[in-house]
């Protein structure tokens, strides 16, 4: 019974992190129309920055804040330097479907560049990453409780971020402007909303969300230029399972994957995790091609 | 009071020359209607004025300012609001969110006036006030058109560009919307540039008419004269 509960709690904590990463993908997809394959590459890069700060004796919290800020800055830089010029080129491209794939391919290029740079700067060594609170199970007299302070910390942080994002998108003017810019750029521009600025903001928010996911997941995966590739695959699956354009769907998708992976690891074998992810993706695409909470428009490819 | 002056405007739409040297003046405080058949360039004209399409040559002046090829988000800040064709609202937004969207750029500096502007449009279209929390997608076509106009009005424009408000609506609803606009123009001095395929309806309320055919102005005269000109009507408007 204890094993089952601990599996559920670990799964929920990991699922919360996947939800965060998936949410980052959804925000850029909705806000800028790009499936961002570089997302966890960005997170890997900013987690290295945090790791360097911690190794040089700075506090975890300073490193935490610096990573989040550099995550949003990196997102903005990618938009301003690469995605925005590409969007201008896009209109002159021959076919629409071809034009839509250009930023996606660019994001793969950015991922490759970030991984190569990390390899150059940090020699590609795999290193650990600390947790701000204890990650061992709580002691309860002679026995142990089936979860750690870090599990609770992760769930708490992600919950707070989700509430803040919900408030931002539904209750503030800028949030309304971002949603309008995503849903109907033409009407948004006629309403005086600076659509390209809203896109940059999507990249910034998504970058910070991805960075946070990186900080929270690396204590269990370790940090190397490629360790977060698997998280990208999981986050992408979570986003697609949830419907790709639905923030709530991304969160639900993240939790399903987190708990599902924990159950497969505990009761099946860890080697089957990939197979399980693939199976889930396949099943959802077969039964609900637009995801659990996806919009009505058909996605192909 | 500012006039809108369009001189020698040329705009291409893809490979087609949509506007081929259009010139006219929309006088301050009046309703000017642009009529003409499908494909005459009416929508392109409004889209070029509001900055959605780039002019190839020619100028658009708004009062003392030249606004040719400025960005739409800059033009709306100068008091020119555009209600594009097809009841342009965001269906998943609530009615209130759609209205608020139009005043977002003024919210920080004039938050009290934004509230006043919102209550004014709700007075103008009471049906929207009843449905304020509903999603815009649940509204009827006429209500959606009222909502699109409200979104534009809360930006406190001095010039309203209205593209085919009658499209797909029942005659009674059209009459209601046109009369609301007419009333607003007469009571507040709002300048209106109304694009319509339904020339009868438009000329009935307009002060001035501009007839477009294949991207060129073929007639530019007081609306009353245009209404009476049977040769013109039969040649270009088909009735």
Automatic annotation (TrEMBL), chain A:
Compartment(s): Cell membrane
Coiled coil stretches, renumbered: none
Gene Ontology annotations for the cellular component aspect, listed alphabetically: plasma membrane
GO biological process: amino acid transport
Chain segments annotated as transmembrane: 12-32, 60-82, 102-124, 144-169, 200-217, 223-241, 248-267, 273-293
Membrane topology: Multi-pass membrane protein
Keyword set, alphabetical order: Amino-acid transport, Cell membrane, Membrane, Transmembrane, Transmembrane helix, Transport
Pfam family, one: BPD_transp_2
Entry-linked PANTHER family: ABC TRANSPORTER PERMEASE PROTEIN, BRANCHED-CHAIN AMINO ACID TRANSPORT SYSTEM PERMEASE PROTEIN LIVH
Name of the protein in question: Unannotated protein
Species name: freshwater metagenome
From TrEMBL, chain B:
Keywords: Amino-acid transport, ATP-binding, Nucleotide-binding, Transport
Similarity remark: Belongs to the ABC transporter superfamily.
GO annotation (BP), single: L-amino acid transport
The name this protein goes by in its record: Unannotated protein
Domain ABC transporter residue range list: 4-239
Lineage: unclassified sequences, metagenomes, ecological metagenomes
Stored SUPFAM superfamilies: P-loop containing nucleoside triphosphate hydrolases
Listed Pfam families: ABC_tran (PF00005)
Molecular function via GO: ATP binding; ATP hydrolysis activity; branched-chain amino acid transmembrane transporter activity
């Amino acid at each position: 019974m204890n094993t089952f509960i601990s599996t559920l709690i670990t799964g929920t904590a990991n699922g919360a992190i996947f939800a965060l990463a998936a949410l980052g993908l959804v925000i850029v997809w909705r806000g800028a129309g790009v499936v961002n394959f570089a997302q966890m590459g960005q997170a890997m890069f900013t987690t290295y920055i945090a790791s360097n700060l911690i190794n040089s004796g700075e506090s975890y919290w300073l490193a935490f804040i610096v990573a989040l800020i550099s995550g949003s800055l990196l997102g903005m830089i990618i938009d301003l330097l690469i995605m925005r010029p590409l969007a201008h080129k896009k209109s002159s491209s021959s076919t629409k479907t071809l034009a839509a794939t250009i930023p996606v391919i660019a994001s793969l290029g950015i991922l490759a560049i970030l991984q190569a740079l990390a390899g150059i700067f940090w020699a590609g060594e795999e290193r650990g990453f600390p947790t701000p609170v204890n990650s061992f199970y709580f002691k309860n007299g002679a026995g142990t409780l089936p979860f750690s302070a870090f599990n609770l910390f992760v769930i708490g942080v992600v919950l707070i971020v989700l509430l803040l994002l919900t408030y931002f998108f539904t209750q503030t003017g800028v949030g309304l402007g971002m949603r309008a810019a995503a849903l109907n750029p033409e009407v948004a521009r006629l309403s005086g909303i600076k659509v390209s600025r809203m896109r940059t903001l999507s990249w910034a928010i998504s970058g910070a969300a991805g960075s946070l996911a990186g900080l929270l997941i690396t204590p269990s995966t370790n940090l190397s230029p490629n360790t977060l590739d698997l998280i990208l695959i999981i986050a992408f699956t979570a986003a697609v399972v949830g419907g790709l354009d639905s923030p709530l769907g991304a969160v639900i998708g993240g939790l399903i994957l987190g708990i599902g992976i924990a159950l497969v690891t505990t009761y099946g074998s860890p080697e089957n995790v990939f197979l399980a992810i693939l199976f889930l993706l396949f099943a959802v695409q077969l039964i609900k091609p637009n995801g659990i909470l996806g919009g009505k428009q058909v996605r192909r490819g | 009071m500012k006039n809108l002056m369009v001189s020698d405007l040329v705009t291409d739409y893809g490979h087609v020359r949509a506007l081929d040297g259009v010139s006219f003046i929309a006088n301050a405080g009046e309703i000017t209607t642009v009529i003409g058949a499908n494909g005459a360039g009416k929508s392109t004209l409004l889209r070029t004025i509001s900055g959605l399409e780039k002019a190839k040559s020619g100028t658009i002046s708004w009062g003392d300012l030249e606004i040719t090829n400025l960005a739409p988000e800059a033009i709306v800040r100068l008091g020119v609001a555009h209600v594009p064709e097809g009841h342009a609202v965001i269906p998943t937004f609530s009615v209130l969110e759609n209205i608020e969207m139009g005043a977002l750029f003024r919210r920080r500096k004039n938050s009290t006036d934004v509230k006043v502007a919102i209550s004014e449009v709700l007075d103008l279209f009471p049906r929207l006030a009843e449905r304020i929390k509903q999603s815009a997608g649940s509204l009827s076509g006429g209500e959606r058109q009222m909502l699109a106009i409200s979104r534009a009005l809360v930006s406190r424009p001095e010039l309203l560009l209205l593209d085919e408000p009658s499209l797909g609506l029942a005659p009674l609803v059209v009459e209601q919307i046109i009369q609301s606009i007419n009333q607003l123009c007469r009571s507040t001095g709002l300048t209106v540039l109304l694009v319509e395929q339904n020339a009868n309806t438009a000329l009935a309320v307009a002060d001035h008419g501009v007839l477009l055919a294949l991207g060129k102005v073929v007639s530019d005269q007081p609306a009353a004269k245009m209404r009476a000109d049977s040769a013109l009507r039969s040649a270009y408007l088909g009735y």
